[in-house]
Automatic annotation (TrEMBL):
NCBIfam families: D-hydantoinase (TIGR02033), PRK13404.1 (NF009941). This is Dihydropyrimidinase. One of its GO terms (molecular function) is dihydropyrimidinase activity. The keyword Metal-binding applies. The lineage of its organism: Bacteria, Pseudomonadati, Pseudomonadota, Alphaproteobacteria, Rhodospirillales.
């Protein structure tokens, strides 16, 4: 027997090619791609199926303390289980520093939260909220060298935000050490001022969450983030871009040759402000930041995905239950929007939604789908080529897709621990029917086959896209 596993007769797709091949797996890695491979100890017939790299979701929140009485619904088990059923094999949740906490202590805390739980592989992004001298001078550089090579910083939310001076200090460390900085770009003072004004006028229903975070507040912060990065001469990745105005700023920067990368998410393609405006409190289900915009914006985001403005398509899964005392209603059933936890679930629906509306409806090539959802996130965060592609030597992280299966998304079908999905009732064509991680079947035909804790922690390398312009490429290590 040459292989532990052979996936036969399928159509393989990578970010560059689509071809008929058998995939031979040995020791958890792809060992061969070719026609008529020798027998494997196990065989899977993938005739009429697509053999895609497992998705890499570069933006998820699991078991992250919130600072109030609310609690995230998904831990590292339910979160990774949900991801796997949606065709994803690697997730990058956040290890968030509380103000006053050491960054190292935050990382250790999240490792404890994950222990014994994940069913797929995972790495951590850091969230830097308190860039003290100790953090900047010692902890951050040491953590980057230990494999935590990306971190998110916030320009909004009182508990998380950095001022411009602090952002510059963090960007400077990223430049020196070669890490990737992800930025949440919304202008905090604009939002606070509008929120106060809306509250005084009694406009506190979930719908007004969107009104309090207008596109111009995203545009201004996006422009500022770009300018700060240009000053320091370091690439950055602007996360969860929602509006046409921010897209304009990103294109302007890219057109000037700056290394500005961008991410968008399903909520900006499939939801609008109307979803926040349902009767009563229902709109709270779709409260996230930045908020969903309108149909014209959705078209701009689609164009950005297909046209190369965006490199990464992530879920920004931030799971809160609708009912119960720990979720969206933590401050009561009629709470003002400012008291509603921000975030929506989406780790399981990310890929089927984009596959159906993007690939099946002819908006994007299959190769583009793989690039946006697997290969590029792996590159951006220093996991490529181990993750995010099907190539000899890569981990055998593979999702088998039935491109002809039609599914109506309902929450009953999903495997997260949230009691709703914002995408209830959407019909999609194309569905991941089996997910393999390092050659092991994690789930197949609706059944979970992996045991909790099998997922491995992945130290990340220094991402090539984080290199400053003009910096020489390091000599390859082989
Ligand atoms: Zn964010």
């Amino acid at each position: 027997m040459d292989f532990d596993l052979v996936i036969r007769n399928g159509t393989v797709a990578t970010a560059s090619d689509v071809f008929k091949a058998d995939v031979g797996v040995r020791g958890g890695k792809v060992a061969a791609l070719g026609e008529n491979l020798a027998a494997g100890r196990e065989e899977i017939d993938a005739a009429n199926l697509l053999v895609l790299p497992g998705g890499v979701d570069g933006h998820v929140h699991f078991d992250q303390p919130t600072g109030d009485e609310s609690e995230m619904a998904d831990d590292f088990l339910s979160g990774t289980r949900s991801a796997a059923f949606g065709g994803t094999t690697t997730v990058l949740p956040f290890a968030c520093q509380a103000k006053g906490q050491s960054l190292r202590a935050a990382v250790e805390d999240y490792h404890r939260r994950a222990e014994g739980k994940p069913v797929i592989d995972y790495a951590f992004h850091l969230i830097v909220t308190d860039p003290t001298e100790q953090v900047l001078g010692q902890e951050l550089p040491a953590l980057i060298r230990d494999g935590y090579t990306s971190f998110k910083i916030y320009m909004t939310y009182d508990a998380l935000k950095l001022n411009d001076r602090q952002i510059l200090e963090v960007l400077d460390i990223a430049r020196t050490e070669g890490a990737m900085v992800m930025m949440h770009a919304e202008n905090a003072d604009c939002i606070a001022w509008l929120t106060d004004k809306l509250e005084r006028a009694g406009q506190t229903a979930p719908f007004f969450h969107g009104v309090s975070r207008p596109r111009v507040a995203e545009r201004e912060a996006t422009h500022r983030a770009i300018s700060l990065a240009e000053l320091v001469d370091v690439p950055i990745l602007i996360v969860h871009v929602s509006g046409a105005d921010a897209v304009e700023q990103i294109r302007w920067a890219q057109g000037r040759g700056l290394r500005i990368y961008a991410e968008t998410c399903p909520q900006y393609l499939f939801l609008t402000a109307d979803d926040l405006g349902g009767d009563g409190f229902e709109g709270a289900k779709c409260i996230c930041s930045p908020p969903p915009r309108d149909a014209a914006n959705q078209r701009v985001i689609w164009d950005g995905l297909t046209g190369g403005t965006f490199q990464v398509f992530s879920s920004d899964h931030a799971p809160f239950r609708y009912d119960g005392p720990k979720g969206k209603k933590v401050a009561g059933e009629k709470a003002p929007f400012r008291c509603v936890p921000n975030g929506i679930p989406g780790v399981e629906t990310r890929l089927p939604l984009l596959f159906s509306e993007g690939v099946m409806k002819g908006r994007m090539e299959l190769t583009k789908f793989v690039e946006l959802t697997a290969t590029n996130p792996a590159r951006m965060y220093g996991l490529h080529p181990r993750k995010g592609t099907i190539a000899v030597g890569a981990d055998a992280d593979i999702a088998l897709w039935d491109p002809s299966r039609t599914v109506t998304i309902t929450n009953d079908l999903l495997h997260h621990n949230v009691d709703y999905t914002p995408y209830e009732g959407i019909e999609v064509t194309g569905w991941p029917v089996a997910t393999l991680s390092r050659g092991e079947m994690v789930c197949r035909d609706g059944a979970l086959l992996a045991s909790p804790g099998r997922g491995a922690f992945l130290p990340c390398g220094l991402p090539a896209p984080a290199r400053p312009k003009g910096a020489p490429a390091p000599v390859l290590p082989f």
